[in-house]
Amino acid sequence: MDVEHATILSDLGQCRPAGALSERRARWRWTKVPYEAGGIAGTLLMAGPETQAPPVTLGLGVRGWHAVFLGVYSDQWAGPDCLRVKLTSDSCFVPVVRADPGFDSTILIDDVFWKYADLTGQDLTIAQMASGSGRQAGLAYVRLAPLSAEEVAAVLADRQRLETRRLIAMDDNFSFYCDRRATVADIWEQIEPYRDTDVGRLFWCAGAGGDVVSYPTRVGRVIGITEEDFPTSAYRHVGESMRLLLGQGVDVMQVARDYTHSLGIEYHISLRLGAFQMFPGFDEFFTSEFYRGHPEWHCVDRDGTPIARLSYAYPEVQDHVLAVLEELASYEPDGLNLIFTRCAPYLLYEEPLIAGYRARTGVDPRQLDEQDPHYLRYRDEVMTGFMRRVCALCARKTSGRGRRLLLSGNVLNNEAENVFYGLDVATWAREGILDLMVPDTWIGKAIDLEYFAGITRGTSCELYAQIMPRRMPAGEYRRRALQAYAAGAQGLCLWDASGRYPILPEWNTARRLGHKDELTTEGDDADQHFCSVPVKTLGGYTVDRYPPYWSY
Length: 552
Hints:
alpha/beta; 6-stranded antiparallel beta barrel; Jelly Rolls; 26% helix
């Protein structure tokens, strides 16, 4: 890209409509603030968390392909930020947040790459998060670097590559409702950032988990639509979103599936298999009616203590979960994803297990050490029986593309933890029960990738490595990805990807981690398309040496 001949649009006071702008802070208006930063002088726009400023449009006035950079500004005093941007041809906005402005004596603008695009006839629309829990937003300038014909050809060719789509993005289909009253466009906005990236599969949760879901269900209940008193304002937004969407006849799962497929990405539906209950204060919001109505099917510890989980030792529990999965399969996704992470235990010392083990061995398992390998393997057999039933369900269902449903599992971090909690992942790989296996961190313990590479090697089960934590410098993303590929992973998984992609300095690296053969050539420390620009003056105040807020 020709950075030296970039067009810099720094006077955002030219945005339209003019009536949506103000010289002074005002509700429903963007505030125009003059500034100087890094040799650029202009007028930035800002809106506070309670401003509820309407979208405004900036004319770009250029033709042809460009690299689009954004000069993102936020006030470190005003709390979380979220700028939303879209080009004329884009179907929806995408969110952009500051990398981590923190509280520092230096006021900065983030100069960060957004995307490549043909800007002929295009304008830029900017917006803030205004519904629900508003967030501040600010934009100082837009920098447009033209691309050569060779660079355009390379960009287009790269977008057609399929072998680099080695990433799974996971979305809980819950958190984004917490700060808004969601619309169909908000669902699109959750998925749009995966366009033209290495994400080949989206794992989209069915809702909170268990049978408490975010779609019209006959098996469980829709989360938040019956409550009057919510445990937090964020969860009130979830309930209001569900009421609004269902009242308009919107099926979240179907909307997400169609939009994901429009991007050429596989759509898999995730279910948290142990998320049926929560403690008081949150129990009426999260707890399943099935769980509440059947205490006789709860887990029981070795000393007889009831545990707040449903036990998969009971056929009735398995049948109920299979009924939920049957509903999910009716959406004709590309696959079903079972999330075992966070939800253990799934079975302990329930009566069917005690009776079955006693019949086989003559021993009461409650008299054994809880790490007894023979009883643990017996519990594993029970869960494997359930998994074979799920695998059979996937085999008799087809996706919207006419293929059988793939089955994947987010499992615990190593052999011992999986065995203890009833997950015989080695058998699941060997028998082809799972098509994809994603080992996850479990209560802070590291993932033993060598073990998982060993049990999946030579099987039809592909290994995907979870890349955590959610926040990492670009160089650390590359380092962890290279380690995972070297250990034998076929691909990578990004838990809570929707919390990653608004942070462009990190996402610009994370979204290309499927280019595994090119990772060593992309630098070591930081995103090459990001820099922080110190602000010299802001609103007429000199802020680079003796900031006014030192007084407070």
